[in-house]
Amino acid sequence: MLDGGDCCTAVEADPHQPLILERAEKEPEKKWHTVVSDRVKKHCSCSPEKAKSKILSFVPILQWLPHYKLKDWILGDIMSGLIVGILLVPQSIAYSLLASQDPIYGLYTSFFSSIIYAILGSSRHISVGIFGVLCLLVGQVVDRELALAGYLPESSFVSNNSDALLAGQGNSSNVKCDRSCYAITVGATVTFTAGIYQVLMGLLQVGFVSVYLSDSLLSGFATGASLTILTSQIKYLLGLKIPRPQGWFTLFKTWYSLFTNIAKTNICDLITSLVCLAVLIPAKELNDRFKSKLKAPIPFELFVVIIATLASHFGHFNSEYGSGVAGDIPTGFLPPQLPTWTLIPNVAVDAFSIAIVGFAITVSLSEMFAKKHGYTVDANQEMYAIGFCNILPSFFRCFTTSAALTKTLVKESTGCQTQMSGLVTAVILLLVLLVIAPLFYSLQKCVLAVIIVVNLRGALRKFRDVPRMWRVNKIDASIWLITMATSALVNTELGLLVGVLVSAFFVLGRTQQAQVLELGRAASREHYENVSSYHGLQTHFGVAVFRYGAPIYYANQSLFKKSLYKCANLKPVKEKAQHFKFEKNKNQEDTEEIPKGINVRSLVIDCSGILFLDTAGVNALKEVRKDYRELAVEVVLAQCNTSVLDSLERGGYFDSRKDGEVGKNNMIFYTIADAVSYVQNLNLSGELSLPVV
């Protein structure tokens, strides 16, 4: 029991006395300049031990590499790195198409991100590289900026990749940058800006923002984006040369363009697409079905790419049938170049949404696999890692990366132990970049589109889970459906924002829907539960016990009072009006009619479900106490947490003189039983006065 907010001395337990606890003394609040000074000293002071700790935490490879168990881990890391590297070759080339880039830049992106994350990442298992949703977002920005810069749509000409690369190497302003060159310039600038956002968020220690992006929100966003990705690849499956629409409702615009140009379908591309789909879909299903028996997934995508490239080369599909092909894929690396600073204002907003999506996906996957394998990851370090995976590669003409679930699952299932496997993957990609890349010249774009479409199976299967999601939790299912529909039908970036707002709306809505519940006591012990949910609960004569299961703050304080008055069946305004009417009639007509009595003499409010109070919440409790005290009904609080107690004390709840109240029974009880016993004694002793009207 706490009286008036004062600390009490602990006493020996007495079954007839309320529980008394002594509050620990709170540290005096520091002034703001003292807090700032302490934080500066903490973060800016330097010692050899602290410098070493900072370096090791910022570069995790320095922690695990010296303790690497060569005999136990090397085989699994080599196997997983090799398999992921083989899978990344066709996927890197394919997802370049989605990002509106030439194939070589997808290989660059996967190569650099694998190395940088192996050095800076705190997760042992995730695979960082090209991710379909981010490629879609980057591609939309690239196409928009190409149109604003006056470049013709891709369908209006045949790009010359070698000219683009030559223009990129030139430093003279007289060298004209063609469409391909400008596309990667925009993509690299977006990537650089997104990486800056992510590193800044890491510096500000805002890794906690990932908790506000729920699994249902991210899943709905990814599924909606997958529908947009699927739609964007149909034109390649049919061999149609139509520009990507911009703005909102791109899904409908794309399908309209597809239907209006369906007569221009390239039969060669269509037949190739159908054959590749007929091979890859069953092959992927076989990999999924027998993954527990296979030591590693069979790289059917690579086989299809090799066979399709040979068929296209010897069948002259490009020259004879007009089939679109990957074109020149040069070997080696280009010299680094700075992003285009003048483009940053144009892409800053897009880059922010890309940064949030990339970070959220990476952190959610890293935490999921860390929990599964019994270690921890640092969300802020993941922010640094993914940020530098975008900043540094952007100088080498790369686009945005993040963790990818499919490749991470493959990496884990093939024996990955550490990020050494990422370095092995980088070696495989380096071999392709230095030697093998030009051999993919004749690879048809429709084959790349098939690879993208087939890899959307996992996200699109989420539609089958909607009925189960709805049965389990309608709110999570609603968030999923709204986010998915907005991302797919309206705008991809808007879908993420709408998902966050809808999630916040539902959280607030739950506090608005909370109701006051009447509690009853179990027959066998001192335990109270909702009388409408359990049988056999007993209530106390003259004492009503209620529970409110939500915070009381400015947005729901009026709803709390309304619900309490309704549940108690005792509305102060109505009761006072009846008393006033009785007194008036008595004086005028000298009637002997007696007003209806009030059965409830005391209210106990169980505050165990009230997480916090703001000023409006404290005032609401003070108003409830004052209104009921005027009816000679005592209100006491029980089972308040320390945060609520502090808010009540600061709000003057315990000082009755501030409100001009009569009485001194401003008690806080640690158990409901103590509160009930206290008010029962008050009722028996007759300390509660008659209503004051």
TrEMBL record:
Determine if Lipid metabolism is one of this entry's keywords: no
Transmembrane stretches in the record are 73-98, 125-142, 182-204, 216-238, 294-314, 343-363, 384-406, 426-456, 477-508
- SUPFAM superfamilies cross-referenced by the UniProt entry: SpoIIaa-like
Q: Which domain of life is it from?
A: Eukaryota
Q: Where in the cell is it found?
A: Membrane
Key word Transmembrane present? yes
Question: What membrane topology term does the record carry?
Answer: Multi-pass membrane protein
Keywords attached to this Swiss-Prot or TrEMBL record, sorted alphabetically, are: Membrane, Transmembrane, Transmembrane helix
Task: Read off the InterPro entries from this record.
Answer: S04_transporter_CS, SLC26A/SulP_dom, SLC26A/SulP_fam, STAS_dom, STAS_dom_sf
Residues forming the STAS domain are: 533-679
Q: Which GO terms describe its molecular function?
A: secondary active sulfate transmembrane transporter activity
Q: What is its main location?
A: membrane
- Name the record gives this protein: Solute carrier family 26 member 2
